[in-house]
Every structure is written in structure tokens, then in C-alpha cells.
Design a protein that fits this description.
Strand content: 25-35%
Number of strands: 14
CATH architecture of the largest domain: 3-Layer(aba) Sandwich
Low-confidence stretches: none
Strand order of the largest sheet: 1-4-3-2-5-6
CATH superfamily of the largest domain: HUPs
CATH topology of the largest domain: Rossmann fold
Number of domains: 2
Helix content: 25-40%
CATH class of the largest domain: Alpha Beta
Mean pLDDT: 91
Largest sheet: 6 strands, parallel
Number of helices: 9
Length: about 300
Amino acid sequence: MKLIRGLNSSKTKADEACVATIGNFDGLHLGHQKIITKLKDKALELDLPSTVISFEPLPAEYFMPNPPARIYPMRDKIRLLNSLGVDQYVCLSFNESFANMEAETFVEDILLDKLGVQYLAVGDDFRFGHKRKGDFQLLKTMGAQRGMEVSDTDTCELDGERVSSTRIRKLLETGKIQEANRLLGFTYQLSGRVRHGDKRGRTIGFPTLNMRLLNHIAPAKGVYAVKVHGLEKLPLDGVANLGTRPTVQGVENRLETHLFDFNKDVYGKTVCVEPVKFIREEKKFDSFDDLKEQILIDVEQAKKYLQ
């Protein structure tokens, strides 16, 4: 998949025309997949690249002092778009200039002139442009004038309820991983490069794989039974803590995973950690001995569940 970061220069244009969809795509859940499937079918019909257009930061993160937590960091959005067979991802920088751009200017300058969109698929509630004045009807009207076909996509429902990023986010925030997976259409996983940590875990017999995460990530902070993908042919079982590690006065959000019966040096490798079961909330312990005692309990609970 080709990654295009920004179309800020007046001379910047995509290499060729495309078919596209646009939105936050946080989660890439069943509803998003429905749009992407429609997009890929049209791309095949017109022999043009399928293109997903999104933003960094997300618009809510620009406008709101306390925006919703993300389901996925950008690196996982890219990973999943690639796995879904999207040809290119256009990541637009959402800044003051972009926030103040009129809807008509966005359609004319970005979609038509710079990206050459010939077919645009959007969700049924898509709004865009300054003060969210742009809507499906505006896209249809302007598209008809320049040969851009515009199609909306009906709401995706599961068990009679709308599949949405908001719904999935709430499930992750309350540790309901399996319920979230049903709406996502695949197992929730967070990817990252294994980094050097403080190496405190190994002093009490529990070495960990350390990954840095966004501070505002949706899953509940706490301990999980997990499976780790990317180190062996089959996923490896383990137990992980997601959070800031209050026992050691940590401030950085991390995912620290202890793998069972595994002691290889894997620093620098990229892995995907799949939370399978939420065990307990993160807490501060009075001492390392208390922490070690609780980890022993966590390990046994994780092993029991994963078996």
C-alpha cells in the first residue's frame, strides 16, 4: 500500500486518478469494511487505485480539549488498511488552515484537482468542511459537474444495533474485548516495536516486552491475558499490563508483556499484542514484593484462561 502524507503544496498532485472514501476510520470495523469493499469493487471496475483519505490528528483531537480515546494508533490503521487490500492511504494534516477550509474548496482543490477522484464512497452521516457545512448532497452536486460519481453507504448493523467506533470504544474502555471483536470483524491487536524498558520486571523474575502507546488509547488500563504475534510461527501466550505503572511513578503509557516460557532477545522486533481477556484494573502497590505476589496471581489467571 502506498502512503501519501499531505497534499499541501499547490503543485502536489496524486500520480493518477483514483476512487476514494474519506473519514476517520478509527477501528476499521465492519461498517468501515463495508465501505472499503464497495470501494475496491469500483476500483476493479474502473482500473483505478482504491484510496482511503483520513486525517492526522483526527478532527475531534484538533477541536476538543478532551477528545475520545483512539481505538488504534496511526501505525495500526496503516497496518489494517494494508491487510484489507487498499491501494493507497492519503493522510491529510488537520491544522488551522484545513479546519477553516470551506467545504466547496475541499471538494474542488483536494478531491477533484489534486486527487482526481472519479468515484467517492462515503458513510451515510458524513459531514465535512468549515463548520461541517459539507454533506452528501454537496458532494453529489459538485461531483456531477466534474464527472465524480458519489455514493453513500447504508449503516452497518449487528444484532439490530449500529456498528460504530463509539460503540467499540466503550466496549474496549470497559474491558469487553470479545464483544468489541465482534463489531471489529477481527481480533483487536496493538502493534509496535519492542523497546528497552526499565528492566525492573526481570529483577523479580518477570521480564517483559515493552511497547510505547498513545496516552489516549481506548482499552482499559490494567492487566490482560494476551497472545503475541510475530515472534514465532504460532502466537505466544502471555500476560500484559497496559498503563503508566503507578507503582514506579511512571507517566508514559506502555504495554508491558510477559511471555510464558520465553527468554529470547527480541529488542527491535515488531510484534502485535492481542488482548484476549481483561483480568483486572491497573493499581499501585506499596512494594515490589506486593507487586510480585500479584503478578504470580495474574499469570495463573492468564494461563487458566488461555488454556
